[in-house]
Amino acid sequence: MIQKTLLATLIVAAITGCTVGPDYQGAPEVADKTLAAGRLPHDARAEPAAPPVAQWWHGLGDTQLDALVSQALAHSPTLAEAEARLRQSRAGLASEQAAGRPKMSANATMLRMRSPDVSQFTGGEGGGGGRGPLSLYLADFDASWEVDLFGGTRRAIEAADASAGASAAQLADAQVQLAAEVVQAYVDLRDRQQRLALVDASSELEQQVLELTRQRRSRGVASELQLEQVITQADTTRSQRLPLQAQIVESLDQLAMLCGLEPGELDTRLKSPESLPNVPAQVPLADPSALLKARPDIRAAERQLASANAQIGEKTADWFPKLSLYGDLGFSAGDPGHLARKDNATWLAVPRLTWNALDFGRVKASVEGAEAGRDIALAQYRGTVLDALRDADSALARYGHQRENVVLLRGIQASAERAAELTRQRYRAGTASTLDWLDAERTRFDAQQNRVSGDAQLLKDFAALHKSLGLGWEG
Is the pLDDT of residue 119 over 90? Predict the structure, then answer.
């Protein structure tokens, strides 16, 4: 009795306690000085600490933009693909988990047969044509289980679970990328529409100047050279319309594609020019380095590293013997009502031990391949972290400098508008020439264009900043 108990204990210990291969110790530290400091080299923010908002684009205060981002997150083919990959990886995990459990099957069979007439072969007389039809009913139940002695199945489940986690993080990363792309495409659209409106306003003013110059030329007050200069400037301004119109169509089509719509479906909805969204006065980024650690692409790379590490143990388990248990319980009777009788039952129990001791290096090669896969995943993880740090640091620097640039551009615009108004007053009073007026208007027009472009770039840098910190995803 003691020996049986000891044997059972050893079997249970072997089944539950032995898992070959390296245990995953977590991702290595990469750029730990930067991440531990809680700041990036160019993190010059002065805003108070505050928790980030997942839907950061709501801070721009544009309801049309909010609706576009929501539509993109709901209908984008890119997200649909990422979601399908997540379901696929979770199905793979469920398959690996099921592989570690016993397999059971059942079948039932009815046989109906008639034996041949053998009298012609034995010399008998009065052959009866053989025995009449016979019926036989069979029911069979069998079960099998491959005992996970050395943890190969457990490592396979561990690898599949990590792969599912990587797919979930990749879905979140796709949401981050998509939200930022929609915001940037929307800003491009409004930027181009505003600049087109400025071109039209400037062109209308220049047409008025052109008519006035022609009248003065007919009276001999203006020269032919002055008239040609005005015509050249008016035509130059009008030439900017066609490229901007083409770019507006491109922006509309890009937004439609991001939202999972056909080209042209957003034209009616967005064709009316609107002002650019307003950038918040403060950007609440409590701890950029902490946000980076939760950045979806970093989490995906870490989960891929964990999966690759578990695959080493899965391959290493092939070095060792495999124990399979097989059992069968069957019933047979000539009458289906007698199948459940004890004397019609047969059973079979078979333990089977297999060991591929001579494989000519196949297992060794597969283990080395898995180790190389782990090293590849490790290098990719390091590269992903460093790239994320570079991306975030550059985005913070660009955003901070662009905010300063926008202040300068708005000051330049205000000065150019004052100068244009003063020149216009002097022209009406006869103390400034037509060319002076046109030069002042051209300067004002350029300053307005630059200010609009600067505001648009600030908004795109705002979106790039949130994208670089991995914001914009929800579970």
Answer: no
